[in-house]
Design goal:
Helices cover 36% and strands 32% of the residues. It is of the alpha+beta class and 282 residues long. It has a five-stranded antiparallel sheet, sandwiched between helices. Strand 6 and strand 7 form a beta hairpin. It is rod-shaped, with a radius of gyration of 36 Å. The N and C termini lie far apart (87 Å).
Length: 282
């Protein structure tokens, strides 16, 4: 309807036939309800919903949604790129059964169940599989999705691709394992101490030479336990220098074995640092 002042209104109308006393049609009676404001609210809600849908679809983070039956309802472009499954392939399919490896099905099902009961989960790992191959690993937040009346209608998962981070961590662990094996099997005595001077490393050659196995040495004060009293001060100075970043090469280190035998080792004392460059031990 158009008002006298040019304003437009929308009315929800019931049109009823009007009859005279003899039953003859003499006109129409219209009874209506002004739904102009309701239409505006609905149009705004649809606009917000459309914006949200576009945001989900084009976000640079993987996003999925499932309904209360665990069937996929959302699968954005980033997730399609990472998983190898298009949106068309996933919508309506069971998330856990079709896209999660056997090893993680139980834990992922539990997280989704908790979210459907209102208990949200942050930072859980979700490996994505295709044709038996792991395509990506996501770090996800699972959030309860609710309808207009507050009822639970599913779960939304918003994630971060940590596939590369996991690969780098695995490579770092491999390098660390290789280094540990190298230290332990080296044909030269190698030991390590922490910032308190307590033994943290003791390789096979050290054990063979001094008669103390690794279990007997780790956690003990290196200078007090394995250096004869007259040399303790000078050895302590070398270790202290290494712990402050001043390394020492070709130092003649006197050692006392478990059986009282004395050895002299030509030592390189090198500072060991953590990821932040802080000294760990010499």
């Amino acid at each position: 309807l158009l008002s006298k002042f040019g304003e437009r209104y929308t009315v929800l109308l019931n049109a009823t036939t009007r009859r005279d006393a003899n039953g003859l049609v003499i006109g129409v009676v219209g009874v209506g309800q002004d739904i102009t404001r309701l239409n505006r609210v609905m149009a705004e809600s649809k606009s917000v919903a459309d914006d949200l849908t576009r945001l989900i679809e084009t976000a640079n983070a993987p996003i999925f949604g499932v309904d209360t039956q665990g069937l996929v309802t959302e699968w954005n472009q980033k997730l399609a790129e990472l998983s190898g499954f298009s949106k068309r392939e996933t919508i309506g399919s069971p998330l856990v059964e079709n896209f999660i490896s056997e090893k993680y099905k139980g834990s992922v099902s539990y997280v989704l169940l908790k979210a459907m009961n209102g208990e949200e989960t942050a930072n859980f790992k979700l490996p994505l599989m295709k044709d038996g191959k792991q395509n990506a690993v996501l770090l996800l937040n699972a959030t309860t999705r609710r309808g207009p009346n507050g009822e639970v209608i599913g779960v939304i998962g918003v994630g971060q691709d940590i596939t590369l981070i996991n690969a780098m961590t695995a490579e770092q662990q491999r390098v660390a394992d290789d280094l540990s094996r190298l230290i332990d099997s080296a044909n030269a005595p190698i030991f390590g101490v922490d910032t308190s001077g307590l033994v943290t490393e003791w390789n096979r050659k050290s054990a063979q030479m001094l008669g103390y196995d690794k279990q007997e040495t780790v956690g003990k004060n290196f200078v007090d336990a394995f250096i004869q009293p007259e040399n303790r001060k000078s050895v302590q100075e070398v270790l202290h220098k290494a712990l402050t970043g001043v390394e020492t090469a070709n130092y003649e280190l006197p050692l006392l074995s478990k059986h009282g035998a004395r050895y002299t080792v030509l030592l390189n004392a090198t500072t060991r640092r953590d990821n932040n460059g802080v000294s760990l031990w010499g």
